[in-house]
Amino acid sequence: MMSQEVENLKLRSRNAYIFFFGALWGYTTFGHGSTIPAFNTGLLVLYAIMGLIGVYLVIFKDARIINRQLQRNVVLAEVCITLLVLAFIYMIPDSLGLVKAVIILIVIAVYFKLYNRTLDKLER
């Protein structure tokens, strides 16, 4: 891939992942397990809209990947990491509080770092 295409893909990826994984992380931090119903409902709407925008951006980003094998691997990795994060949201007890959110954030950050390394290899 050309350097400009990789840079565009990195920019789209960052924006898509900020919305998508940001919605999951925000739900984990502030929405899941909240005992205040009104607070929880308002945040759920915000995170649902943010998540839908993120899903749209991720699908749009994945469609722009030219290499079909890389596209398949990226989509599979995104599905796996999403399922892993969702499993962690419900498996890690709410009593851990922000530690739970930090665990989710670390998993997402490691995935994003590996994804960027893969794109850097394409640039060479």
Q: Which residues form runs of ≥5 with pLDDT under 50?
A: none
- Assign the structural class, choosing from mainly alpha, mainly beta, alpha/beta, alpha+beta, or little secondary structure: mainly alpha
Series of H and E elements = HHHH
SS field, number of helical segments: 4
Strand content: under 5%
Shape: elongated
Overall pLDDT level: 85
- Per DSSP E runs of 2 or more residues, the count of β-strands stands at 0
- N- and C-termini, Cα separation: 8 Å
What integer value in Å does the Rg equal? 16 Å
Main sheet makeup: none
> Helix amount, in percent?
over 70%
Walkthrough of the structure:
There is one protein chain. The chain has 124 residues and is mainly α. Helix content is 85%, strand content 0%. The chain is elongated and about 50 Å long. The mean pLDDT is 85.
